[in-house]
Amino acid sequence: MNAGSLFADLILPLPLAGLFTYSIPWELQSKVAIGKRVVVSFGGKKIYSGIVKNIHNNPPEDYEVKDIIACLDETPIINHLQFSFWDWISDYYQSNLGDVYKAAIPAGLKLESQTKISYREDFTAEARLSKTEELIITVLKSSKDVNIQTLTQASGLKNVLPQIKKLLEKGAIEVEERILSSYKEKQIKYVRLHQSIKEDEIGEKLNSLNRAKKQQEILFSFLNLSKIGIAEVPEKVTATELLLNSDSTSSILKALVDKQILEIYFESTDRLDFSDAEINPLKELNQHQAQAIKEIREGFESKNTSLLHGVTSSGKTEIYIHLIKEQIDQGKQVLYLLPEIALTTQIITRLKHVFGNKVGVYHSKFNDAERVEVYNNIQQNNPDKSYQVILGVRSSIFLPFSNLGLIIIDEEHENTYKQFDPAPRYHARDAALFLAHLHKAKTLLGTATPAIETYANCKQGKYALVELMHRYQDIKMPEILLADLKEAKRKKRMKSIFTPELYEEINTALEKKEQVILFQNRRGYAPYLECKSCGWVPHCENCSVSLTYHQYNNQLTCHYCGHSTQPPQSCMQCESTNMVDKGFGTEKIEDELRIFFPQARIARMDLDTTRSKTAYEKLIYKFENHELDILVGTQMVSKGLDFDHVSLVGILNADSMLNFPDFRAHERSYQLMAQVSGRAGRKNKQGKVIIQTHEPKHPIIQSVIQNDYVGMYQTQMSEREEFIYPPFYRLINITLKHKNNGLLTQAANMLAQSLRKTFGIRVFGPQAPVINRIQNYYIVNILLKIEKKSSPAKAKWILNREANNLKAIERFKMVMVQFDVDPM
DNA sequence: AGCACGCCGACT
DNA sequence: GTCGGCGTGCTC
């Protein structure tokens, strides 16, 4: 290292462009290094942990540098591959490095200070304090560890900051910035014999407890559990298992501790389970799977990416497992991406059977401490303890891999891989392809219904294509039948929301003790309420959407901002009390089912019923164990779950998906219907699918019936080409937001005009989206379609220039402009 | 994102 | 006159 002043450029966890330079004080020069976290103060008083991106000796000229306060890490927590990856994400998706940092690192590793306020005992008032000041003092005197938020709450004041400032000047209070490390190692409470007791004294001690039966029992259990005197090395006994085993309480245990017979000690532990799962050999592949794996390997010889296009239930997971095994044997890491947590449950069990504790899981329902532990585990890259396979969702692409050999992206077509809010708006599938490139690893995409873009890449020879068209154990593809809603309604044969066809089939299935899955792409009870006299519909007061009626809590809820209100007793416009619900969601289906099939055991699976960590697993478990007859759900039921006893799948309304105003609506409908149909079918019997629709002749529905992916692909491709959409063109969506709609329109028109100078007819809009106001901000979109072969970097450069020009105009300064590259 | 500063209307 | 609203600008 050079003599003289050293400076470090930091990434701070803030939505700000650029890096921030700090000086490295002499005593930290040996510790601070690229990839480590350092503590700095930023702005007035706030303290953050930044990541050192680079170190240099060019003193900044335009401002005064601050010192780095401390260095947090012994070894870097970000490796050079991650830095390259972050740079790529930031550049490609046009987001700040700070935003990438925020998305990439678990919160427990991002320290942020909190202001602690306390009353000064030695304070004597020179002048009278105002009422609000007195109020604050009272709150401070009555509690300790007060921060701004708790003070605001306790005092009921809107803005406490000016008051704090005044009290600070008067010397009545003091404030302190304290950094909170949210992550703590988990401590486990163990029990052992008190140090003073020798093994041969135990019998004596037991006798001494003759008059304290409960205590004696605990000691007995302890001796049993610890195997003292029997085993060479006694077993560790946790307090929890001891109490459970002896059926007693902690107060009885405490009595023994007080008598100095037992003692309590703590050991920190990983929250993660390293217990040895039973390791089973690989299952042998059937001939179709074996052929597929052979083709995948051949594909990888010449290409870095392969698509495994395998019909539902074709046994793709088993193929993945074989490929993972090969990588682990070579000492490489594997990342196995899934679109959502929901799917991990079934697959984690299968992976653990083969790879035991080499498998790690990472998803958003983990608490923060668990996420920190997974992160650290991979970062340490310890051959005995570190995970070799990570099963994770979107955000696991940011884990500190050092040696990836293979990335598997299961259900590759799923749009949950695209992050929308907050920035960075990355697509995990596309980002993973770059990640693989950085690691010189291979990528395997797997799905029964490839994204049009992905299939097009195969057809162009960029990816290898492997087809697996046989279902596992030769289960037949389900028989798909249509039920014409129009006709049933005209003939008045509908039973509520069920066509006679669907109704009959549900009945038959129930009689045969078979299971049914019903799918509706809409949660809640009814999409909206409507006044029968005047047509008034309740809307969200912050957003421009109608409110969805939820019956379970009798609330009208906005699915955009979460705002909830009581449904109005009468129409707010004409005061009629004749409010009716329109359309139907999963909740209403569940209700109707209970009326028509009172004997059936019914459950609903959607966002509302699976909020807790285990709710989803419990539902799946119940359904698998045949404790349920009918499962009603949203897209959740379409995703990769394999059940053995489902003979019937019903799609209640195919039209709502097909008519969605988006260029991907048809592709998406095909994928949903094909995926949910795939849930039907069992070992010895062909499954049945009933699609209720007003348009039985719709080409997408016809493709679903004929299981004709390629036909659907070709139609879509010609439409995409004609209407200039991906994969022929690259999309960038520009969103402008402002509270004043008029100003917003002016700004958007101006930006669109200036973009047209360069991009001409490739600029579409500005157009207000269907929902043109969210949380009091009006929204407009401008869509840019760029030719695939032109340089995206140059387009983005021009885009930024024009956006900056717009912001340079005084009255448009406050207009928010954000980009979404490859929007979904 | 926070947070400070400064300007303005509307209350004791 | 002060309190609290919000628009604006800055942070190495």
Automatic annotation (TrEMBL):
Residues 297-468 form the Helicase ATP-binding domain. Binds 2 zinc ions per subunit. GO terms for biological process: DNA recombination; DNA replication initiation; DNA replication, synthesis of primer; double-strand break repair. SUPFAM superfamilies: P-loop containing nucleoside triphosphate hydrolases. PROSITE patterns: HELICASE_ATP_BIND_1, HELICASE_CTER. Initiates the restart of stalled replication forks, which reloads the replicative helicase on sites other than the origin of replication. Recognizes and binds to abandoned replication forks and remodels them to uncover a helicase loading site. Promotes assembly of the primosome at these replication forks. This is Replication restart protein PriA. It comes from Ancylomarina euxinus.
